[in-house]
Amino acid sequence: MIKFTLLTLLSLVLLSCNKPSNTQTELRTSSSSKLNKDSAVLKRISLNEAKKLVENQKTNGLTIIDLRTPQEYQSGHMENAINIDFYKNFKENINKLDKNKQYLIYCRSANRSRASLKIMKDLKFKNVLELDKGIKVWARNGWKLVR
């Protein structure tokens, strides 16, 4: 009986280790960054994935959103990025955007963008990509910022 109980507990522990985190289960993701009619694409993307999207921004209809304060934005941002300050009426301002367009969001270190991704999911945005690790890593790689 003790062996059975220990085996059952061990099985439960192993199963719980494979359970995805809350963040992973909250966001429906797709392996493609293109809009899929049947499911929303809300996910974090790597620096290299973001760089490719930004380079093809004119053809893919991508809107880049910098979530930092206006002062941070003025210190250097991605080319063609619009500034929507996370700390000033973010939900109200973001809710004015077309929920069916493709967006790339970023902040300094990905804390605000992670929170924004969840808010945008709750507001029923269909295609939002979050730059993992934020603009500071983008800049550290020597990639273009404009002032």
Give a quick rundown of the structure.
It is built from 8 helices and 5 strands.
Keywords for this entry:
single chain; 147 residues; alpha/beta; Oxidized Rhodanese, domain 1; five-stranded parallel sheet; 8 helices
User: At the fourth CATH level, what is the homologous superfamily?
Assistant: Rhodanese-like domain
Mean pLDDT: 80
Q: Enumerate the spans where pLDDT stays under 50 for 5 or more consecutive residues.
A: 4-38
Classify the fold: give the CATH topology.
Oxidized Rhodanese, domain 1
Q: Main sheet, how many strands, which sense, barrel?
A: 5 strands, parallel
- CATH architecture term: 3-Layer(aba) Sandwich
What's the count of strands?
5
Q: Report the principal-axis shape.
A: globular
CATH class reads Alpha Beta
Distance between the termini: 69 Å
Measured by DSSP, the beta-strand proportion falls in: 5-15%
What do you see in this structure?
The chain is 43% helix and 14% strand. The termini are far apart. The chain has helices at 2-17, 22-26, 47-55, 57-60, 70-74, 90-94, 111-122, 134-140, and strands at residues 41-45, 63-66, 82-83, 102-106, 127-131. It is an alpha/beta fold and 147 residues long. The longest helix is centred in the N-terminal third of the chain and has 16 residues, at 2-17. It has a single domain (22-140), classed as Rhodanese-like domain (Oxidized Rhodanese, domain 1, 3-Layer(aba) Sandwich).
